[in-house]
Known about the structure:
The chain is an alpha+beta fold. The chain has helices at residues 2-12, 16-25, 33-57, 68-75, 103-121, 142-151, 156-165, 177-186, 192-200, 202-217, 244-254; strands at residues 80-81, 84-85, 92-98, 126-132, 226-231, 234-238.
Amino acid sequence: MGEEELKEPASEDPGEAPAEEGRSESPAPPRRWLPLSLLTIGTIALLAALVSLSVGENREEDLVITGTGDVQELIAGIPQLGERLGNSDAPITLTLFTDVQAPLAADYQRDVIDPFIEEEVRTGNAQIIFKNFSLGAKEVTLGGIAVEAAAAQDHGWQYAEMFMRNQDEVKQSGVDQDFLDEVAGNTPRLEVTEWEDAYYDPASREEAEKDAELAVSLRLRGDGTAVNVQGPNGSELLQDSPSREEIDAAIERVS
């Protein structure tokens, strides 16, 4: 009886044997881990590429700063001390109140101030003094502080010129440290390490703040660049980005 009891489960259980046959004859379910894994890897790679592209767009090396040679040609050989460009004993002094971060000011610099530098400052007829004057909401801009830091090396005019000529490289989010550094690195004869030290020195911001206070005391309007013309017979303040003709007429009156 013991042997029969051992054999009965195999012969009397009708479902067990067919179940084994069914498993052996039916095709195995597809193993989906491989395509899912490939899909996951592909998705990660795509996201990594997008992140890399996004980061790459904001990298410092993507900035293309130009105009170094033109700025050197414009400024080289003209005496420069701090914010002043030109001979200190020139009979006419122009004080320029401008914003290196404003496109309007950059256009004015190119069309009016640069020719004046070449024709009047280089020849010794006039000297020109740079003053930071924000045309935006901020009283003091990062660009203004950076110019003051360069002026500590007597290269403020070169830095300002390089900044304004490359405003198109400024990100939509605004001026950042990458842009300031790249402009410094391309400014003719500027010692970048010394400029960096000056930029983070509170004295540079203080100088920019003094310029802003002077603009307030003169009641300058924020509608454009302002120019103060001073000569032997007095001075005249011209606002709203005066034309070269207006500047020449004021020089005639104060000479």
